[in-house]
Protein backbone atom coordinates (compact mmCIF):
# COMPACT_ATOMS: atom_id res chain seq x y z
CA UNK A 1 0.00 0.00 0.00
CA UNK A 2 1.34 3.45 -0.94
CA UNK A 3 2.18 5.69 2.00
CA UNK A 4 0.24 8.94 2.18
CA UNK A 5 2.67 10.57 4.59
CA UNK A 6 4.01 12.81 1.82
CA UNK A 7 2.28 14.84 -0.87
CA UNK A 8 3.79 12.63 -3.56
CA UNK A 9 2.59 9.47 -1.84
CA UNK A 10 -0.88 10.92 -1.27
CA UNK A 11 -1.13 11.87 -4.94
CA UNK A 12 -0.05 8.38 -6.05
CA UNK A 13 -2.56 6.77 -3.71
CA UNK A 14 -5.40 9.05 -4.84
CA UNK A 15 -4.69 8.34 -8.49
CA UNK A 16 -4.59 4.60 -7.90
CA UNK A 17 -7.93 4.76 -6.14
CA UNK A 18 -9.44 6.76 -8.99
CA UNK A 19 -8.12 4.30 -11.56
CA UNK A 20 -9.66 1.38 -9.64
CA UNK A 21 -13.01 3.02 -9.09
CA UNK A 22 -15.96 1.84 -11.14
CA UNK A 23 -18.58 4.52 -11.68
CA UNK A 24 -21.70 3.36 -13.47
CA UNK A 25 -23.03 5.69 -16.12
CA UNK A 26 -26.57 6.10 -17.42
CA UNK A 27 -27.97 4.13 -20.33
CA UNK A 28 -27.59 6.29 -23.43
CA UNK A 29 -30.28 6.46 -26.14
CA UNK A 30 -29.50 4.25 -29.14
CA UNK A 31 -31.02 6.71 -31.60
CA UNK A 32 -29.09 9.80 -30.46
CA UNK A 33 -25.64 10.61 -31.83
CA UNK A 34 -23.00 10.73 -29.13
CA UNK A 35 -21.91 14.16 -30.33
CA UNK A 36 -25.41 15.52 -29.59
CA UNK A 37 -25.38 14.46 -25.92
CA UNK A 38 -24.65 17.43 -23.67
CA UNK A 39 -25.05 15.86 -20.21
CA UNK A 40 -25.23 12.31 -18.86
CA UNK A 41 -25.16 11.25 -15.23
CA UNK A 42 -26.36 8.43 -13.00
CA UNK A 43 -27.56 9.83 -9.68
CA UNK A 44 -27.40 7.34 -6.79
CA UNK A 45 -30.06 7.20 -4.11
CA UNK A 46 -29.65 10.19 -1.85
CA UNK A 47 -27.78 12.08 -4.55
CA UNK A 48 -28.42 15.19 -6.58
CA UNK A 49 -27.51 16.94 -9.81
CA UNK A 50 -27.38 20.50 -11.07
CA UNK A 51 -26.82 21.57 -14.67
CA UNK A 52 -27.67 24.41 -17.03
CA UNK A 53 -29.61 23.23 -20.09
CA UNK A 54 -30.01 25.28 -23.24
CA UNK A 55 -33.19 26.00 -25.16
CA UNK A 56 -34.00 23.11 -27.47
CA UNK A 57 -32.49 20.46 -25.18
CA UNK A 58 -34.29 17.15 -24.79
CA UNK A 59 -33.93 15.77 -21.28
CA UNK A 60 -34.56 12.12 -20.41
CA UNK A 61 -35.15 11.03 -16.83
CA UNK A 62 -35.04 7.24 -16.45
CA UNK A 63 -35.79 4.90 -13.56
CA UNK A 64 -33.51 1.91 -14.27
CA UNK A 65 -34.31 -0.12 -11.15
CA UNK A 66 -37.92 0.86 -10.51
CA UNK A 67 -37.77 2.94 -7.32
CA UNK A 68 -36.16 6.26 -8.26
CA UNK A 69 -37.90 9.47 -7.22
CA UNK A 70 -36.75 12.55 -9.12
CA UNK A 71 -37.64 15.75 -7.28
CA UNK A 72 -37.20 18.33 -10.04
CA UNK A 73 -36.98 22.12 -9.95
CA UNK A 74 -36.43 24.34 -13.00
CA UNK A 75 -35.32 27.97 -12.90
CA UNK A 76 -34.76 30.16 -15.93
CA UNK A 77 -31.00 30.35 -16.37
CA UNK A 78 -30.88 33.90 -17.73
CA UNK A 79 -33.46 35.20 -15.23
CA UNK A 80 -33.42 32.88 -12.17
CA UNK A 81 -36.20 34.80 -10.41
CA UNK A 82 -38.49 33.12 -12.97
CA UNK A 83 -38.97 29.53 -11.93
CA UNK A 84 -41.24 26.52 -12.01
CA UNK A 85 -44.66 27.32 -10.59
CA UNK A 86 -46.40 24.13 -9.52
CA UNK A 87 -49.76 25.81 -8.95
CA UNK A 88 -49.90 27.14 -12.52
CA UNK A 89 -48.50 23.89 -13.90
CA UNK A 90 -51.60 22.19 -12.46
CA UNK A 91 -54.15 24.99 -12.82
CA UNK A 92 -53.55 26.33 -16.33
CA UNK A 93 -53.78 22.95 -18.16
CA UNK A 94 -56.74 21.92 -15.95
CA UNK A 95 -54.88 18.75 -15.00
CA UNK A 96 -53.06 17.74 -11.80
CA UNK A 97 -51.62 14.53 -13.24
CA UNK A 98 -48.62 14.88 -15.51
CA UNK A 99 -48.44 13.08 -18.84
CA UNK A 100 -47.41 13.57 -22.46
CA UNK A 101 -48.03 17.12 -23.63
CA UNK A 102 -48.17 18.63 -20.15
CA UNK A 103 -46.28 21.94 -19.75
CA UNK A 104 -44.08 22.80 -16.79
CA UNK A 105 -44.98 26.47 -16.42
CA UNK A 106 -43.10 29.35 -14.85
CA UNK A 107 -44.59 31.99 -12.58
CA UNK A 108 -44.67 34.28 -15.63
CA UNK A 109 -46.98 32.05 -17.64
CA UNK A 110 -44.23 30.68 -19.86
CA UNK A 111 -43.34 27.11 -20.76
CA UNK A 112 -40.03 26.09 -19.23
CA UNK A 113 -40.43 22.51 -20.45
CA UNK A 114 -42.99 20.15 -21.96
CA UNK A 115 -43.41 16.44 -21.22
CA UNK A 116 -42.99 14.92 -24.69
CA UNK A 117 -42.91 11.21 -23.84
CA UNK A 118 -43.86 9.32 -20.69
CA UNK A 119 -43.74 5.56 -20.14
CA UNK A 120 -44.23 5.88 -16.37
CA UNK A 121 -47.43 7.82 -15.66
CA UNK A 122 -46.55 7.80 -11.93
CA UNK A 123 -45.74 11.37 -10.93
CA UNK A 124 -46.72 13.93 -8.31
CA UNK A 125 -47.34 17.68 -8.40
CA UNK A 126 -49.08 17.90 -5.02
CA UNK A 127 -46.81 16.86 -2.15
CA UNK A 128 -43.55 18.68 -2.79
CA UNK A 129 -40.11 17.56 -1.63
CA UNK A 130 -39.18 15.83 1.60
CA UNK A 131 -36.86 17.65 4.03
CA UNK A 132 -34.04 15.42 2.79
CA UNK A 133 -34.63 16.28 -0.86
CA UNK A 134 -35.07 19.99 -0.07
CA UNK A 135 -31.67 19.98 1.67
CA UNK A 136 -30.10 18.35 -1.38
CA UNK A 137 -31.79 20.83 -3.72
CA UNK A 138 -30.44 23.71 -1.63
CA UNK A 139 -26.96 22.23 -1.93
CA UNK A 140 -27.39 21.76 -5.68
CA UNK A 141 -28.74 25.29 -6.01
CA UNK A 142 -25.84 26.78 -4.07
CA UNK A 143 -23.51 25.46 -6.76
CA UNK A 144 -25.46 27.56 -9.25
CA UNK A 145 -25.34 30.70 -7.10
CA UNK A 146 -28.85 30.19 -5.71
CA UNK A 147 -29.97 30.73 -2.14
CA UNK A 148 -32.30 28.63 0.07
CA UNK A 149 -35.15 31.04 -0.66
CA UNK A 150 -34.85 30.12 -4.36
CA UNK A 151 -35.79 26.49 -3.70
CA UNK A 152 -39.55 26.23 -4.11
CA UNK A 153 -42.04 23.39 -4.61
CA UNK A 154 -41.00 20.63 -6.98
CA UNK A 155 -42.55 18.06 -9.27
CA UNK A 156 -41.70 14.45 -8.42
CA UNK A 157 -41.27 11.93 -11.22
CA UNK A 158 -41.63 8.12 -10.88
CA UNK A 159 -43.62 8.07 -7.61
CA UNK A 160 -47.33 8.60 -8.23
CA UNK A 161 -50.03 10.21 -6.10
CA UNK A 162 -53.79 10.29 -6.67
CA UNK A 163 -56.51 12.33 -4.98
CA UNK A 164 -59.39 10.27 -3.59
CA UNK A 165 -63.03 11.41 -3.68
CA UNK A 166 -62.76 12.47 -0.02
CA UNK A 167 -59.68 14.59 -0.75
CA UNK A 168 -57.15 12.15 0.69
CA UNK A 169 -53.85 11.69 -1.11
CA UNK A 170 -52.87 8.12 -1.94
CA UNK A 171 -49.44 6.99 -3.12
CA UNK A 172 -49.58 4.80 -6.23
CA UNK A 173 -45.93 3.75 -6.30
CA UNK A 174 -43.81 3.42 -9.40
CA UNK A 175 -44.36 1.92 -12.84
CA UNK A 176 -41.43 -0.48 -12.51
CA UNK A 177 -37.89 -0.69 -13.80
CA UNK A 178 -36.99 0.99 -17.06
CA UNK A 179 -39.68 3.65 -17.25
CA UNK A 180 -38.70 7.09 -18.49
CA UNK A 181 -39.91 10.65 -19.06
CA UNK A 182 -38.62 13.03 -21.71
CA UNK A 183 -38.85 16.81 -21.35
CA UNK A 184 -38.26 19.38 -24.08
CA UNK A 185 -36.64 22.54 -22.71
CA UNK A 186 -38.16 25.75 -24.15
CA UNK A 187 -36.05 28.34 -22.33
CA UNK A 188 -32.53 28.03 -20.90
CA UNK A 189 -32.93 26.55 -17.43
CA UNK A 190 -31.03 25.56 -14.35
CA UNK A 191 -32.08 21.98 -13.61
CA UNK A 192 -31.93 20.85 -9.98
CA UNK A 193 -32.70 17.21 -9.17
CA UNK A 194 -32.66 15.23 -5.93
CA UNK A 195 -33.21 11.46 -5.84
CA UNK A 196 -34.80 10.55 -2.50
CA UNK A 197 -37.93 8.89 -1.15
CA UNK A 198 -41.35 10.48 -1.62
CA UNK A 199 -43.27 12.09 1.28
CA UNK A 200 -46.07 9.49 0.97
CA UNK A 201 -43.89 6.59 -0.16
CA UNK A 202 -40.91 6.04 2.12
CA UNK A 203 -39.39 3.13 0.19
CA UNK A 204 -35.68 3.84 -0.30
CA UNK A 205 -34.87 5.40 -3.65
CA UNK A 206 -32.76 3.67 -6.30
CA UNK A 207 -30.54 5.07 -9.04
CA UNK A 208 -31.82 7.76 -11.39
CA UNK A 209 -30.43 8.30 -14.90
CA UNK A 210 -30.33 11.72 -16.57
CA UNK A 211 -29.35 12.22 -20.21
CA UNK A 212 -29.70 15.46 -22.18
CA UNK A 213 -29.06 16.11 -25.85
CA UNK A 214 -29.48 18.90 -28.36
CA UNK A 215 -32.79 18.73 -30.26
CA UNK A 216 -33.67 22.28 -31.36
CA UNK A 217 -35.78 21.03 -34.26
CA UNK A 218 -38.34 19.73 -31.77
CA UNK A 219 -39.23 23.30 -30.78
CA UNK A 220 -41.08 23.56 -34.09
CA UNK A 221 -43.29 20.58 -33.21
CA UNK A 222 -46.69 21.27 -31.65
CA UNK A 223 -46.75 19.02 -28.59
CA UNK A 224 -50.15 20.14 -27.28
CA UNK A 225 -53.12 21.76 -29.05
CA UNK A 226 -54.97 23.02 -25.95
CA UNK A 227 -55.58 26.78 -26.10
CA UNK A 228 -54.00 27.29 -22.67
CA UNK A 229 -50.81 25.58 -23.83
CA UNK A 230 -50.70 27.50 -27.09
CA UNK A 231 -51.08 30.79 -25.23
CA UNK A 232 -48.23 29.90 -22.85
CA UNK A 233 -46.06 28.78 -25.77
CA UNK A 234 -46.70 32.10 -27.52
CA UNK A 235 -45.70 33.97 -24.34
CA UNK A 236 -42.52 31.89 -24.26
CA UNK A 237 -41.54 32.62 -27.85
CA UNK A 238 -42.18 36.35 -27.43
CA UNK A 239 -39.98 36.44 -24.32
CA UNK A 240 -37.21 34.52 -26.04
CA UNK A 241 -37.31 36.75 -29.12
CA UNK A 242 -37.16 39.88 -26.95
CA UNK A 243 -34.27 38.51 -24.87
CA UNK A 244 -32.18 37.48 -27.87
CA UNK A 245 -32.78 40.76 -29.68
CA UNK A 246 -31.65 42.66 -26.60
CA UNK A 247 -28.50 40.59 -26.30
CA UNK A 248 -27.68 41.07 -29.97
CA UNK A 249 -28.28 44.82 -29.95
The total domain count is: 1
**Content-based structural category:** alpha+beta
On the 0-100 scale, what is the average pLDDT? 93
Described by the principal axes of the CA atoms, the overall outline is globular
Main β-sheet, spatial strand arrangement: 1-13-3-11-6-5
Kindly report how far apart the N and C termini lie. Answer: 61 Å
Our estimate of the beta-strand percent is 25-35%
The arrangement of helices and strands along the chain is: HEEEEHEEEHEEEEEEH
Number of helices: 4
Task: Describe this structure as you would to a colleague.
- It is a single chain.
- This protein has 249 residues and is α+β, with helices and mostly antiparallel strands.
- The chain has one domain (37-248).
- The chain has helices at 7-20, 86-91, 131-142, 227-248; strands spanning 37-43, 47-53, 57-63, 70-76, 103-105, 111-118, 123-124, 155-157, 160-163, 169-173, 179-185, 189-195, 208-214.
- The strands form three sheets. Strands 1-13-3-11-6-5 form a six-stranded antiparallel beta sheet. Strands 2-12-4-8-7 form a five-stranded antiparallel beta sheet, covered by helices on one side.
- It starts with 6 loop residues before the first helix and ends with a helix.
- The mean pLDDT is 93.
Short précis:
The chain is α+β, with helices and mostly antiparallel strands and 249 residues long. 22% of the residues lie in helices and 30% in strands. It has one domain (37-248).
Amino acid sequence: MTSTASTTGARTHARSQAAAATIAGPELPDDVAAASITFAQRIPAGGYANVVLGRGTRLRLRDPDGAACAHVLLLRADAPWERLNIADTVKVPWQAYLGTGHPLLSDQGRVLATVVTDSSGRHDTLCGPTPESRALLRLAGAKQGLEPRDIGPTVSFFRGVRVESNGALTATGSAGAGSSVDLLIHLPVVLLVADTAHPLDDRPATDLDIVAWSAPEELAVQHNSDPEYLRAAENTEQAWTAATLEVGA
